[in-house]
Amino acid sequence: MELLINAAIPSHPRFSRINRAKQKPVRARAVCCSRMNEEVSGLSRAPSQMELQGHDNIGMSHFQSSNIGPEMKHNDIWRLFREAQQNILYLNKQRLMALEELKKMKREKQLLLDRLEQLEVATRANTGKDKLSYCWELLLRIDSMVLMGMIGTGEASDLRRLVMDFKVSVADVISDILHKRDSELLAELRHFSAKSKKNGFHIVHICTEMEPVVSVGSLASFVRGLSHALQGKGNLGIHLANRYANLDLDEVQGLREIKADFYSYFNGQLYGNRIWTGVVYGIGVTFIQPLYYSSFFSRERVYGYSDDFERFSYFSRASLDYIVKSGKQPDVLHIHNWETAIVGPLFWDIFVKQGLGDTRILLTCHGFDSQCLAEPDKLALCGLDPSRLHRPDRLQDNIKMHLVNILKGGIVYSNKVVIMSSMDSKSSIIRSLSNGLESTLAIHKDKLLIAPCGFDNSTWDPSKDKFISENYTANDIKGKAVCKVALQQHLGLSEHASTVTVGCIFSEGSDVDLENLKAVVRIASRRDVQFIVMRVGKKPTVNRAVETLQEELKDGNVKFINNYDEALSHLIFAGSDIILCQSFHDPILQVPLKALKYGAAPIALTLDDIRFRHVADHDFESTKFSQYISTTFENMSLSQALDEIKNNPLQWNRKIVDAMAKDFSWDAECSDVHISAYTSIRNL
């Protein structure tokens, strides 16, 4: 026991000096007794030398006193032993706390390093965007110089080639563009005007929509998404758009008016137009605003008026007049839907001889359900000859032969036609979805290409999504389980990893879709499934239908979100095991594409005994997306998906990981099809 006490309470150096001076040995147990009445607080206080000298005789006689009973000594020893143990436990506790604090500091350090890395990546990205913006500013300033007569069209073409050549980084040399006068900027451009080899395509889009400035349907997201994808592959695209009266100028960075009007032909006369230029999300845009016919585009809606032919034929003619006036010589004029399809006949009948001999026409069509029929004489408004075009092999409508069909004219007069369809093949479109244009499409079948819609993978990517609880990838999918728990917590659902979570994000749907949703939810809710339904849109009739549906499906495992929430929609994709889809061809919301990227199976919103309404003709002419979906999820009902999750979890997980690894963004098949089309027509 004495050995234990001596180990717990180390000797003090002062005791050794005093004992040597008096030549009186002190036994170890006397040290223990001398501290009987002292306060113990972890480390006992040793007596000073003065105390020992002044009371030496009394102390020694006290140490040697035999009046202290054995029982009292025994209790004191155990008391000190317990105190020593408490001191050791306290020190161990302090050590553990110090280790935890150290771990915390290491974690905070790592988080700080990660944040610095993110900021560095963002800085590099912003630097790239700034350089691209410089290029756009230069191109737009060159247009302005041509309109004001400072340079000719030939020199303007050379300067544009210089800017477009990414090997010669003019933006690195010519800085502070906005604050330079035109004469100074022109002098610097001429200094770097050595001709260089062109790498990509020079594309001019003539379009009526572009996200986020003007967005009505799928065209807006397509124009923006494809343009970003093509720019990333070394191509530059200028966009000509209507200057609508309700245009949100806040969305346009540095929008400015070019102080030189240009004139375009319409209804037998020349009319002035004002030009506005700017950069929208890294894309150079030129807006055309008619001065005399200003009422054409000061409307509440973009489409749906009795004079739509006049409105969009004016814009198409003005766009071509501007291209010639500004000296542009693009490789491709990319036109979209019937609204700008008149550019085809205008180009080949009037403008090809005005310095555009090397330019070709590509038409992208987002469906044949929207067409424009007009009296043949109206073609004269924009300078066309009705007698030459009102023929069966040109613009004459196939059914109403006394009228001209503008979309048909775009097909006939374009070098290539890209039909946007994620699930249909070329033959099935011609046969079943041509809306009266079957014979025209059959004649021009060789110029038709099919491209799927894509999605914005810079915003929709679980590996870097800022809206979800934890990022994850196909190679490391653990973060998806974290997102599932976060989604359940956010919506007040029970947090069970084994419970299947089904998301459904739908736009203004029909009553049939809601009836299907109601039936599917009722059937699957008996199988311990959680449903999250989010609606996009504000139609009052749909609001009432959804409210009725919500009343009928009162269930703790069913949650309705009636107002679209961007952040929550990201979490729904990340936290869901399955996403119900109205259609696999979804050009507006792109729900199936986002579901695949986030590791949620896209399943058709149908009853178990009803197959998806779409019957695709999966042949060599269909898209890669269609071929993939047809072999994985197209023919799978919700009940079958739930069975596979339960009975074959390993096989299901492999299928999900494989889906996440696919690339169906704008950067992939969609841009590849268009680049292939540009390449094939450049040398025609």
TrEMBL record:
Domain of life of the native organism: Eukaryota
Catalysed reactions, as listed in the record: [(1->4)-alpha-D-glucosyl](n) + ADP-alpha-D-glucose = [(1->4)-alpha-D-glucosyl](n+1) + ADP + H(+)
InterPro entries per the UniProt record, alphabetical: Starch_synth_cat_dom (IPR013534)
Pathway: Glycan biosynthesis; starch biosynthesis
Presence of the UniProt keyword Transferase in the record: yes
EC numbers: 2.4.1.21
Organism: Liquidambar formosana (Formosan gum)
Name of the molecule in the record: starch synthase
